[in-house]
Write a structure and sequence with these properties.
Adenine-n6-DNA-methyltransferase TaqI, Chain A, domain 2; elongated; four-stranded antiparallel sheet; alpha+beta; 35% helix
Length: 431
């Protein structure tokens, strides 16, 4: 793959000049530098309620759900035709990640707040798809003013763009279409490899969590669909007989005099097998509540709502933290290994146990009563520890493989960005 897109094989032009724009840099001497309004004009608004609704999403024009758009709103929309450029000029400072310019491949109607551009001269739209992508990322998001930082065609009309000879536009567009397709294909392959690694990890964890490490042991049927048969000497008990379960405190926004403001976890902080503390809120706790709801190292934390049953283990990621009532903390008794049950809950959740007992119609809740009556499997403690250690080694190996694939994806995406920028601005000669 890498050999087919080797940048070192590409040449440069014989002479360059300044474009007058930092984001473009120097360009080939014979290329023109023109204002955007010389190349594009803003399309006049037209209406067609028979067309489906659309919007821009990360540089792609996509269909929207017509059923969620009132007819009166749709009548205020403007027609966007295939081959026209769509720009989302709204609230630039609210979202610096999304791509805001796209070449439409479909006929739709879009919000009248969007800008639609038609070409004012003969040009290769595919080439300008790539150039405007760079303009979007490097320059447009620095424009505009005000609290909402929203721009209009007037703001961008005098922006400088480059205008290579048409034959070179065609060559660059063809080059980038082919090369970026190859890079995207390589990225897709590596992303599928990561998915396969994650799937393989789950299969192996499921096997040892429910069957143990001894493949020669006799098995018995316990009537639990998610486990299948388990080793004969393992037990099955309701959670309430082997663990203490605490549902978190109801949200409290008022200081009642002797309460203290403390950080707490809610369901959105709980991910499968890890806790997310990037955004932790605070609320008021009494000293008695602090004793009840405080997390201790090794506690399991389960989501009560949303994707119910998501489980992580608390490893003192914060010096002090508590739980709100969208989360349970589970502390196993009698020496049972917390980490082993972390993996058991992970497999049970992935196989649908918690969703099944919630039996949701709309928003489901894994109440304390439902949770404490969940039947779980109890291997001997020495086996719990051995299984936990085996899974941790497996997890380290697979995570290293995943990290390697993610680094490779990062390098491919970085190379793609460099290649686009180099080709559209003439830093490399591609024909």
């Amino acid at each position: 793959m890498e050999a087919t897109i080797n940048k070192n094989k590409l040449k440069q032009y014989s002479s360059y000049k300044s474009s007058g724009e930092d984001w473009i840099g120097d360009v080939p001497e014979h290329w023109e530098v023109l204002k955007l309004k010389r190349l594009f004009r803003e399309k006049k608004k037209s209406i067609n309620v028979d067309l489906p609704c659309g919007s821009i999403s990360f540089g792609k024009v996509v269909y929207k759900d017509d059923e969620k758009i009132p007819e009166a709103t749709k009548r205020s929309y403007q027609v966007l035709s295939k081959g026209e450029f769509l720009i989302n000029p709204l609230n630039l400072n609210y979202d610096l990640i999304s791509l805001r310019i796209g070449l439409s491949e479909i006929d739709v109607v879009v919000s009248s707040g969007y800008i639609i551009l038609n070409s004012a001269v003969e040009l290769n739209k595919s080439y300008y798809k790539w150039l405007l992508h760079r303009y979007d990322v490097e320059h447009m998001k620095t424009m505009g003013s005000g609290v909402r930082q929203t721009i209009s065609f007037t703001h961008i009309a005098d922006s400088l763009l480059i205008f290579p000879p048409l034959v070179e536009q065609n060559a660059i567009a063809e080059f980038l279409d082919k090369k970026t397709a190859l890079i995207d294909q390589a990225v897709s392959i590596k992303e599928k490899q990561i998915d396969l690694l994650k799937e393989r990890k789950q299969i192996l964890i499921q096997k040892v969590v429910t069957k143990g490490l001894n493949s020669n042991v006799n098995l018995k049927d316990i009537g639990l669909e998610w486990t299948g048969k388990i080793p004969e000497h393992w037990e099955v008990k309701k959670l309430k007989f082997v663990a203490n379960v605490v549902l978190g405190k109801m949200l409290c926004n008022e200081d009642k005099g002797n309460y203290l403001l403390k950080p707490y976890l809610k369901s959105k902080n709980i991910q499968w097998l890890n806790v997310d503390i990037t955004s932790v809120d605070e609320m008021w706790f009494s000293k008695k509540e602090m004793e009840e709801y405080r997390l201790q190292k090794g506690d399991l934390v389960l989501s009560e709502g949303g994707e119910v049953g998501k489980t992580c283990i608390w490893n003192n990621e914060l010096e002090e933290c508590y739980i709100q009532n969208s989360a349970h903390k589970v502390t196993f008794k009698n020496g049972n290994n917390q980490e082993y049950f972390l993996f058991q809950f992970f497999i049970a959740g992935k196989l649908g146990l918690f969703e099944k007992i919630v039996n949701r119609v709309s928003i489901g809740h894994l109440t304390k009563d439902k949770l404490i009556n969940v039947k779980i499997i109890i291997p001997p403690i020495d086996e719990q520890i051995a299984i936990k250690n085996w899974i941790n080694k497996l997890d380290t190996k697979i995570n290293e493989c995943i990290a390697l694939k993610e680094r490779e994806i990062g390098k491919l995406k970085e190379y793609k960005s460099t290649l686009i920028n180099s080709a559209v601005t003439g830093k490399i000669k591609v024909y």
